[in-house]
């Protein structure tokens, strides 16, 4: 994170592979948005009133611009032509402002995000007053102890 950087948080409570927020982030990335920081995604589990509570949070650079340059004539296609264009990476590169190219980029980006998220386990979020600690599930016992000691 940079000094003076505007951060927009996108928070939710659904599993990230099923969350509409993941699709929102994919669409934003395809459209020119940038994620903020080195670790722009946090997925935690916390016990609240004896129930597990999942929280996901994406950090997006709020200072960036998203620009659309529609530059294509109206056209009517059958499904076979739509599919041919959608599946043709060269066509999409050559026609980057066409809606089919955006749809393809969105589909690819969403698939990539989901693949990255698939291997991540949620961290444990513990609160003590106004202080909190995030403990990765795969942290070794010594690291967990260190984090808990810092929490107090």
Helix content: 25-40%
What is the string of helix and strand elements?
EHEEHHHEEH
Tell me how many strands there are. Answer: 5
Q: What is the arithmetic mean of pLDDT?
A: 92
User: In percent, how much strand structure appears in the residues?
Assistant: 15-25%
Which terms summarize this structure?
five-stranded mixed β-sheet; single chain; 5 helices; 152 residues; alpha+beta; 38% helix
Can you offer a commentary on this structure?
The protein has 152 residues and is an alpha+beta fold. The chain is built from five helices and five strands. The protein has helices spanning 20-30, 79-87, 89-94, 99-118, 141-151, and strands at residues 7-12, 41-48, 51-61, 123-128, 131-135. Helix 1 packs across helix 4 (99-118) and helix 2 (79-87) packs across helix 4. It is elongated, with a radius of gyration of 20 Å. It starts with 6 loop residues before the first strand and ends with a helix.
Topology:
Layout: E1 7-12, H1 20-30, E2 41-48, E3 51-61, H2 79-87, H3 89-94, H4 99-118, E4 123-128, E5 131-135, H5 141-151
Parallel strand pairs: 2-4
Antiparallel strand pairs: 1-3, 2-3, 4-5
Helix pairs in contact: 1-4, 2-4
């Amino acid at each position: 994170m940079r000094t003076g950087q505007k951060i927009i948080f996108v928070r939710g409570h659904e599993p990230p592979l099923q969350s509409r927020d993941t699709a929102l982030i994919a669409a934003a990335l395809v459209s020119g948005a940038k994620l903020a920081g080195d670790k722009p995604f946090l997925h935690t589990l916390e016990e609240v009133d004896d129930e597990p509570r999942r929280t996901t949070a994406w950090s997006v650079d709020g200072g960036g611009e998203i620009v659309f340059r529609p530059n294509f004539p109206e056209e009517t296609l059958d499904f076979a032509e739509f599919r041919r264009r959608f599946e043709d990476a060269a066509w999409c590169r050559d026609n980057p402002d066409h809606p089919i190219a955006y749809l393809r980029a969105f589909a690819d980006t969403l698939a990539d995000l989901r693949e990255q998220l698939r291997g991540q386990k949620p961290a444990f979020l513990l609160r003590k007053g106004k202080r909190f600690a995030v403990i990765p599930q795969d942290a070794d016992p010594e690291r967990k102890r260190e984090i808990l000691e810092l929490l107090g």
